[in-house]
Amino acid sequence: MSSSRLSCKRTKRGCPTSPLFGQVLAPASSRRCDLTARELPRNAKTCRTIVGRVPREAQRNKKPDIRLDIRLQDFQARLKTYTRHRITIRSLTALLLLLTALSGSQAQDNADSVLTSDLETSLAPAALPPAPVTELKAFDSKNDHGHSVTLNWRLSPDDGAGKNIVFAYEVYRWVPFFMDSLKSVREKLSQTESAIAELEVFEPPAKHLLNMHREGKPGKGFADSVKFYEDTLAASKRLLPEYRQQVDRLRDERDEGIDRIPSAHTSYPSEGEWRKVGTVVAGESRFENVGVKDKESADYLADNTPYYYRVDAVTVNPAVRSQSDVVGPVRSSGQWFNTGRVPVFVAVMVFGFLTVYFITRAKRGIDLYVRPLAGIDAVDDAIGRATEMGKPILYVLGLGTAADIATIASFTILGRVARRVAEYQTQLIVPCYDPIVMTVAQETVKAGFSDAGRPEAYNEDIVYFVTQSQFAYVAAVNGVMLRQLPATNVYMGRFYAESLILAETGALAGSIQIAGTDEIAQIPFFIVACDFTLIGEELYAASAYLGREPLLLGSLKAQDYAKAAVIALATAGIVAANLDWTWFTTLFRVSR
Amino acid sequence: MRRQIPLALVMIFGIFMIFQYFVPHESSEWVYEFLLDWIYIIGIFALALGIWSLIRVSVEKIHSRKSGWGYPIITLAGLFLMILFGFIGRRDGVWGLYFMTAEGLSNPMFRHFFDYILIPIQSTMFALLAFFIASAAYRAFRARNILASLLLIAALIVMLRFNPYMGPIGPYVADTASWLLNVPNLAAKRAIIIGIGLGIVATALKVILGIERGYMGKG
Amino acid sequence: MNIFERMMSLDRRWVFLFVALVCVATYIVPFEIPVRVDDEVRSIFEFIDTLRPGQIVFVAIDYDPNALAELHPMTYAIMEHCFRKNLKVIVTALSQNGPGMAEQAIRDIADSVRLDREYGGVKYTGREIVRGEDYTFLGYKPYYALVILGMGQDFRIPFPTDYYGVTLDSIPMMRGVHNYAQVAVVVDLSAGNITDAWIAYGQGRFGFPLALGLTGVMGADYYPYLNSGQVFGIMAGLYGAAQYEQLADNPGRAKDGMRVQVYAHLVIILFIIMGNVGYFMSRRKRAGAAR
User: Fold this and answer.
1) What is the pLDDT of residue A222?
2) CA distance B11 to B205
3) Is the CB of residue A555 less than 8 Å from the CB of residue B205?
4) Packing angle of the helix pair C144-153, B26-64 (nearest 10 deg)
């Protein structure tokens, strides 16, 4: 046995990764091996521990089915329990018989024979097929884009019980032979496309090398392969147009074939055969035959096509199995509304309504109170301080993209800062991490200067791009802090591990620091190192707070009501969970 | 007009994206994927703008001999050298320009710049955190009042959870630290997350409805 | 300024100096820090350890050099474990500087796997790691969420070729390997938001077993996913990596780093205590003076 195969521990009941776990006798001389279900046939001759027939299915199936493997782990766990129970019963029987044996040796013989026969029976190949699954139903998978059919069934009565214990369920779909020809077209197409790609990759360097050779500059070991390059280039020149034509033809053929898939399935039950589409371990009564929507893929499952399915209950011996009734035709299709997301839809609608309602109320002139935000109030003072000191203001928009709400909120504050800076004629520095953010920030600052009536004071160097590498950006910003010693540093937006490095360097440079972020992990760092910090949603509220526009204040009020609703529902959820009111918690369940 | 068109685009696509979440149909996915492709395209154009901005600002600094004008030279050298090395490679003993192939990426200078300059510099920057955390913790963790004392005790417990010299109380400290992280810490975080979530939805709605225009350069 | 006031307002450079001295000293002096293995790390090790030779492990190296100290040891420990077990590895790097890190890791691990070694009493003969047969490095593509979604359909959508420009169809180990369905487990080693995308767009949509390797500061944020079953294992920070190294009986960078981390924490605690002693004593003194 090679060293690479010395991997998993074997127990007395055999290899735990084998479906025959518990049905295998004492270990062979080696205490360790990685014998698995699919490797059984190949190792069967060398491994003396296997009793019973080696599954023929496993012999055929050389490709590992990883999904099955993961499910197998569940199955093994159940088998372990089953085996443990069986052993307990056997031990009790043995104990009873041993007690009886005290009265005579005949009883001991009986105990041995009972134990042996029990063991043999349990390990003997199954002869009778298990009971089939019943009530098989197939339907279009709900709330998806189509290309998927779901099956469910009632478990076989022999699932986890009886001598012919059902090991797994194999799901079969009726597939017309036409699909094979389509598959071969796809394969040919893929091969031809690969060949074209390889020739195209080969051509330029080969031409380059030949030119070098002709110019009398042969590369290392090149002279021997001149003929090879010349021949391949000649072949490539001849073959490429031919291959390209072939690709066009094959694509047409494939597209036509794809269009014919639904009609090909109407020939059921002739001109086709049953093919396995999946396996689930015993105990599971649901299977989703999921295809992909990409027509070019081999896993494409056409919509609006009549499919037929059946489910086989299989035992450890794959020859011993039973088939269910056939179910079909069933057609898959995409849905126009995901009913699993109704709770989200309701929440969005309610929140949208609240926002619009409060905005309308605010428009009517009803005063809405917003508590003071020290961080925002400090901005004006900090700009004044910078003006007095004759030092610049550094504004950092963070590492977020222009699509992040924190960055959008930061633009609003930047606009306000730019306006004040222009009024006080102070210097502003805005180094950016993201190029799109830089573009938007330039517009924001430009607009701020215009609003202050000093458009001429704006110059393109105020806002500039540094890099999209996190710590290179930090190094650049720290450099600015230590060289130019800004009076005020403003950090608003999304920040990650760089938050403390920036804030501590700023503190070292003696700047007043104001921060705001919705990155929870970074809030403590800012609180520790900065003078003022906007926590989470305070950053979003900043624009409303700064502008005091009723339209913006209205949405803040809606947020407060929504928060109250969340608190009420969370409390109700705690009560419901403790009282086992599952109907209540189910109301809020959201599917993918 | 310059303002109306972007606002209209934001509203149309914003509303589409809201409803797209509830429509799993293939055609809705197609539009969604089409829009996502645009993010790549816009990002690439913006990157070009960004690099241009960096070059312009650096050249300006070098040209005007502003203080620290030597640093932009290093910036520009790093920028262009890495690009150049990434495209120069050797195949069959012949040096040449190779785009997106193994030859360019295995250029020894490209690798050496990465392994011996970029990695150490970035690691060093990150390592600074250890020093800054130490100094920030020293300054901030003072038992000024009950809440600050609680914070201090919690911080000490969490820091000591990996400490192997805690003797028999080690497991208790580790369990307490896990409890602190998973219960009070998580509860507070969730509360902030809910607030942030609602704030995000409200701000997104404001952007879609054209109320919030900060992203367009207007506060 | 009396001694207590000095203790309270020590110049930060002293703090830096002490931290630096302790870090250097503990790194130089070799001694071992005992590591207690948590269940969330053990589950990752055991999952990989019970895979069959030939099964595929997907390792996403989603961090930049800045997180190297914490996450690189995880990459080394996991990938060496995989190669020693004859598992195949698909590697991606969805952060900008990830490809260089991944290449460096693969080179170093290949060197290590060439040697005959013994782990946990089992002897492993050295072997050559072959690109395209033992591993495939897909490289970097921007917009990680889209890449993760694309790979769910087919690895060829975001990565028609590997990092070295070889078409995936012509790579031996990628034949018949199309998407996550053919992958036994995805291990995401990340220092940022890419982890969220792996959970939401990857595991959430395609349902593969997902394990996470995170920086220490991120760890606490992702434990809820462990409880909900979306993630079956988490390695957080250097301590997580050291636990994996211990399980794999392959002590390396993480175990070395643990010495530094433990003693650096002790120094920080010492400074905090010192600051508080100074604070209380000077407050008492002030109160006394006021009376």
Assistant:
1) 56
2) 9
3) yes
4) 140
Residue among A220, A334, A419 whose CB faces B26 most closely: A334
Identity of the residue in B199, B212, B219 whose CB atom sits nearest the CB atom of A559 = B199
The beta-carbon neighbor of B29 closest among A145, A460, A475 is A145
Question: Residue C22 pLDDT > 90, yes or no?
Answer: yes
What digits encode the pLDDT tens for the residues A141-177?
A: 888 888 899 999 999 888 876 656 888 899 999 999 9
Residue A139 is inside which H or E element, if any?
strand A134-140
Query: pTM higher than 0.80 for the full model?
Result: no
Please give the structure tokens belonging to residue A227. Answer: 């003929």
A8 to chain C, any CB pair closer than 8 A? The answer is yes
Laid out side by side, the sheet with C56-62 consists of C135-139, C88-92, C56-62, C185-190, C210-214, C233-236
Q: Quote the longest CA-to-CA distance of chain A.
A: 115
Whether chain C has a CB inside 8 Å of the CB on A297: the answer is yes
Identify the closest residue of chain B to C273 by CA–CA distance: B138
C142 contacts on B by Cβ (under 8 Å): 40, 43
Q: For CA atoms B30, B35, B36, B37, give the dihedral sign.
A: positive
Inter-chain CB pairs, A–C, below 8 Å:
87
**Rounded to a whole number, what is the distance in Å from the CA of A317 to chain B's nearest CA?**
42
Contacts of B among chains (3+ CB pairs under 8 A) = A, C
Which helix (H) or strand (E) segment is A381 a member of?
helix A374-389
Chain C CB contacts of B119 under 8 Å are: 65, 68, 100-101, 104
User: CA C265 from chain center: how many Å?
Assistant: 20
CB atoms within 10 A of CB B157: 17
Distance set, CA A139 to CA A171, A210, A258, B176, C165 (Å): 14, 62, 22, 50, 43
Tell me the one-letter amino acid at B61. Answer: K
In the three-class reduction of DSSP (H, G, I as helix; E, B as strand; rest coil), residue A432 is classed as: strand
Q: Report the C-alpha gap between B219 and A543 in whole angstroms.
A: 7
Question: Parallel, antiparallel, or unpaired: how do β-strands A148-154 and A286-290 relate?
Answer: antiparallel
Spatial neighbors of C95 by CB under 8 A, at least 6 apart, are C61, C62, C63, C64, C140, C144, C190, C191, C192, C194
Q: For residue range C215-236, what is the model confidence (pLDDT) as tens digits?
A: 887 887 788 788 778 899 999 9
HEC states along chain C? CCHHHHHHCCCHHHHHHHHHHHHHHHHHCCCCCCCCCCHHHHHHHHHHHCCCCCCEEEEEEECCHHHHHHHHHHHHHHHHHHHHCCCEEEEECCCCCHHHHHHHHHHHHHHHHCCCEEECCEEECCCCCCECCCEEEEECCCCHHHHHHHHHHCCCCCCCECCCCCEHHHCHHHCCCCCHHHCCEEEEEECCCHHHHHHHHHHHHHCCCEEEEECHHHHHHHHHHHHCCCCCEEEEHHHHHHHHHHHCCCCCHHHHHHHHHHHHHHHHHHHHHHHHHHHHHHHHHHHHHHC
Contact residues for A158 (Cβ-Cβ < 8 A; gap 6+)? A130, A131, A164, A165, A166, A313
Give the count of alpha carbons within 13 A of A564, CB side only: 7
What CA–CA distance (Å, rounded) separates B117 from B113?
Answer: 5
List pLDDT tens digits, range A359-388.
Answer: 888 777 777 777 888 888 888 888 888 888
What's the complex ipTM? 0.82
